[in-house]
Write a structure and sequence with these properties.
It is a single chain. The chain has one domain. The chain is 49% helix and 0% strand. The protein contains 4 helices and no strands. α2 runs parallel beside α4 and α3 packs across α4. The chain is globular. It starts with a helix and ends in a 5-residue tail after the last helix.
Length: 80
């Protein structure tokens, strides 16, 4: 995923990924993703199995709060 974001940036696209923000103190990861989805014109999502479970609602209820929040924002989006 990081290589894709770096390549997009190389083409002048203002791409972002959570990995660029790991060093920032106090990041609330349950809110970071949803805020970025809402702030961006286009959202590209590449997911792993755990994130897909969050999207489908099959994840354990005590895991993946950030992914669930991101999925909820995306599912509520009016764009395809």
């Amino acid at each position: 995923m990081l290589d894709l974001v770096v390549a997009l940036r190389g083409f002048g696209i203002d791409a972002d990924v959570d990995l660029f923000h790991l060093h920032e103190p106090g990041v609330d990861w349950s809110r970071w993703g949803p805020a970025r989805v809402n702030a961006c014109e286009v959202t590209l999502v590449a997911v792993n199995a755990a994130w897909r479970e969050a999207l489908e609602g099959t994840n354990p209820p005590t895991e993946g709060a950030g992914s669930v929040a991101e999925a909820d924002v995306l599912l509520g989006s009016s764009s395809p």
